């Protein structure tokens, strides 16, 4: 009886020690289950419904995780990791979630068997390091761009039209610009209802001209970009009540009129302003047949400058001599407002040719989803150019899992459990892909593992149509190495952070503490 009581107490103490782990693991597992069904060519969609009944149907992991309603802190950690993956790479968020969930589940299982958390984490670090090294070694740099279309197709859910748009845009940009850390090909993509798919060298501004009386189209335009408001200098309101203040106000108004007239004399035909345009300037520009647009974002201003070769000017710079202003002007082949699509196109220019991609759609819901898919494809293509490609379909992860297991012989005794956790987690992407395709995941994963080991080919995985083993690279199923590397790194960071949590304590309310909105 005494032994039974002691055993029960010991079990209870163990449960208390692992309660935080099991709670956090359950929250992450629930979150991952929301996206795992979307993985692979046979993945299905998720329906997101807000409190007003508005529906979003998507199989984009980033969208699902970003909009899902959860208050659990561990789940939020995974959401943040997925969001970072989307911002940095533009693809692979579902893989991040699945790998993180698998690492945590395997780690918790070992801890519950009595393995110290520190030893599990030690082994996981060794395994993750080996897996990352293996993936980097297997990456093939696509020198002639032969894999770009395949990368785009995989990321675009086999939508050939969207893949073609993205690849055409990537080729317009060129390899050097795609490797620029400050450039994002996905930012060039915009979806529009009732539009036709289109790629052109230029910029799309979701704005209208300042006045409908201005020309709707301008050819061979001289371009002035004002990173400020096109307004006269200001006089403080209190000063307007004095004679000198009013005189100052009138002088500034007259000076402003002269400056705007000077812009007309320079032959400028298109003006883009970051802020407001004064009604006086609007009238002068309209009478002169100059097209103008206002309240542009800093991103729009930067893209216009890059396209046209213009140099930005502040409001105070309008007083410069005409010769100085000429040196600040840019050029574009055409600017016109598409009233049906409610945007302005700026085409061609003296600067660096940047592509703009218009994705056509029939409805708002379809538009949003097509834009997400095209952006994923753009992120994947850019990552492939930067980091090379590896075999897709879960093949490279199986190869990495085999490589990780080889570490067990040299690992410290209990750290091997962490290595096992990494190896098991790396099998989860293929397992989920074949499960979504309607096959037995346990059977197919073992078949692929044995086949890769037998002939030493890390590109083998499962054809989701036939269920047979085939070479993914030969079938054109490839993924950017950068997507895999970032997903594994992010998943490992989340897993380690959650496994290290021993206790969950609710903080007391701080006086005057700001409220933080829930993630929805």
Describe this structure in a few short sentences.
This protein has two domains: 10-140 and 389-499, GroEL-like equatorial domain (GROEL, domain 1), CATH 1.10.560.10; 199-361, GroEL (3-Layer(bba) Sandwich), CATH 3.50.7.10. It is 51% helix and 14% strand.
Question: In terms of topology, how is this protein built?
Answer:
Blueprint: H1 2-36, E1 46-49, E2 55-58, H2 61-67, H3 73-88, H4 93-112, H5 117-138, H6 148-155, H7 160-173, H8 175-178, E3 189-193, E4 198-205, E5 217-226, H9 243-265, E6 270-273, H10 279-287, E7 291-293, H11 298-308, H12 322-326, E8 330-338, E9 343-347, E10 355-361, H13 364-387, E11 389-391, H14 395-405, H15 415-426, H16 428-436, H17 441-455, E12 460-462, E13 469-471, E14 478-480, H18 481-499
Helix pairs in contact: 1-3, 1-4, 2-3, 3-4, 3-18, 4-5, 4-15, 4-18, 5-14, 5-15, 5-18, 6-7, 6-13, 7-13, 9-10, 14-15, 14-17, 16-17
């Amino acid at each position: 009886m005494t032994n039974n009581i002691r055993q029960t107490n010991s079990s209870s103490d163990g449960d208390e020690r692992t309660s935080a782990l099991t709670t956090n693991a359950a929250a992450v597992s629930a979150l991952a289950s929301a996206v795992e069904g979307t993985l692979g060519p046979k993945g299905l969609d998720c329906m997101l419904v807000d409190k007003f009944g508005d529906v979003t149907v998507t199989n984009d992991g980033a969208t699902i995780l970003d909009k899902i309603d959860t208050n659990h802190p561990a789940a939020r950690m995974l959401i943040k990791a997925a969001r970072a993956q989307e911002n940095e790479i533009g693809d692979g968020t579902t893989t991040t979630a699945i790998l993180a969930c698998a690492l945590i589940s395997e780690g918790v299982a070992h801890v519950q068997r009595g393995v110290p958390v520190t030893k599990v984490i030690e082994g996981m670090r060794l395994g993750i390091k080996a897996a990352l090294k293996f993936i980097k070694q297997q990456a093939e740099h696509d020198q002639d761009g032969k894999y770009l279309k395949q990368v785009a197709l995989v990321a675009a859910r086999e939508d050939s039209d969207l893949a073609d748009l993205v690849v055409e845009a990537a080729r317009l940009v060129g390899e050097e610009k795609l490797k620029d850390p400050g450039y994002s090909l996905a930012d060039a993509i915009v979806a529009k209802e009732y539009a036709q798919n289109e790629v052109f060298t230029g910029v799309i501004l979701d704005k209208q001209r300042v006045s409908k009386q201005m020309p709707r189209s301008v050819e061979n335009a001289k371009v002035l970009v004002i990173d400020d408001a096109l307004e006269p200098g200001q006089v403080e309101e209190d000063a307007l009540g004095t004679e000198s203040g009013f005189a100052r106000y009138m002088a500034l108004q007259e000076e402003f009129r002269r400056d705007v007239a000077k812009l007309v004399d320079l032959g400028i035909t298109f003006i883009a302003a970051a802020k407001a345009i004064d009604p006086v300037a609007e009238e002068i520009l309209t009478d002169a047949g100059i097209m103008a647009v206002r309240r542009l974002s800093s991103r729009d201003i930067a893209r216009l400058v890059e396209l046209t070769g213009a140099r930005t000017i502040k409001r105070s710079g309008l007083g410069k001599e005409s010769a100085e202003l000429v040196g600040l002007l840019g050029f574009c082949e055409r600017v016109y407002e598409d009233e049906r699509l409610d945007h302005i196109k700026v085409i061609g220019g003296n600067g660096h040719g940047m592509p703009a991609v218009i994705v056509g759609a029939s409805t708002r819901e379809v538009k949003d989803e097509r834009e997400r898919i095209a952006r994923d494809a753009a992120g994947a293509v850019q990552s492939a150019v930067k980091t090379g490609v590896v075999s897709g379909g879960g093949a490279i992860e199986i190869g990495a899992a085999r490589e990780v297991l080889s570490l067990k012989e040299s690992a410290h005794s209990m750290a091997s459990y962490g290595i096992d956790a990494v190896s098991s987690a790396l099998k989860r992407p293929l397992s989920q892909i074949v499960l979504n395709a309607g096959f037995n995941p346990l059977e197919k994963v073992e078949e692929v593992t044995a086949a890769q080991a037998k002939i030493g080919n890390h590109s083998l995985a499962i054809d989701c149509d036939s269920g047979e083993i085939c070479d993914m690279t030969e079938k054109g199923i490839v993924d950017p190495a950068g997507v895999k590397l970032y997903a594994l790194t992010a998943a490992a960071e989340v897993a380690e952070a959650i496994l290290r949590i021993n206790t969950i304590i609710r903080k007391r309310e701080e006086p005057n503490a700001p409220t933080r909105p829930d993630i929805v």
